[in-house]
Known about the structure:
By secondary structure, the protein is mainly beta. It has one domain: monomeric porin ompg (Porin, Beta Barrel). The protein has one helix at 5-22; strands spanning 33-44, 60-69, 72-81, 86-99, 103-121, 127-146, 151-162, 170-186, 189-202, 205-218, 223-235, 242-258. The model is unreliable at 20-29 (pLDDT under 50).
Amino acid sequence: MTQKIIPFLCFVFLFVSTNAKAEDFNSGDSTQKTYHISGAVAVTQNGFSILPMFTLGKPAAIFDLSVGSDRIAFEPQFRFSLEGRPWSFIFWFRYKAVNQKKFKFSIGGHPSVAFRNTSLYDKMGVPKTVLNPQQYFATEWIPSYQVSKKVSLGMYYLVSQGLTEGTNHRTNFVTVNAVINNVLLAKDTYLRFFPQIYYLDIDGVDGYYITETLTLSNKHIPFTISSIMNKKLRSRIPGDDFVWNISLNYLFNKQLKRI
């Protein structure tokens, strides 16, 4: 059944994006309220979680959708291995509390489900693997400051609470980051650079890491290529010293007007 979900989500995302692009709304009326429908479908050789040090360790497909206004949005995310097995479902609700030209501050929260493989034995003693859903709830705080047209600085804080027995009880994730946008490489081809240093604490076991995301885009095509690289600086949390991935992403974004 799960092997049918990925093609179905691909169809939904392409249907929404095609219909959003086909709609033409009058943007000249300042009394109209702006809404958006946007999203992305990514295929990668190594799926990354919200916490960059944790990966699926195998090829993955990630579906992102965002629906809302300039202030509030519902942003679900669905992650699968390319074998069709669900990895995690995250249901973000985000609100821009401050949306000034230079300074912005957003808050958000989500319930989520992460799926883990569990080995069990049937009545005949034959081992089998089943998906074990683990429930979480998390909140986030995101301040940022626009230094120039191309550069912004920010912080990110996420705290997650495990709701299922056997999950991590409390996770704290704090980053200091920068965004460098629209670095011109060639005609209409741009590079986006997103470095960050972060601190991670999982039930009292902590560590420091550095990660960076590079994204290559062209303004005439809806596809981008991106890569995430994560390096351990000092940590007591088990995991690889260095992990990376490369992704092909399909993007769509439509601004809608309603009186």
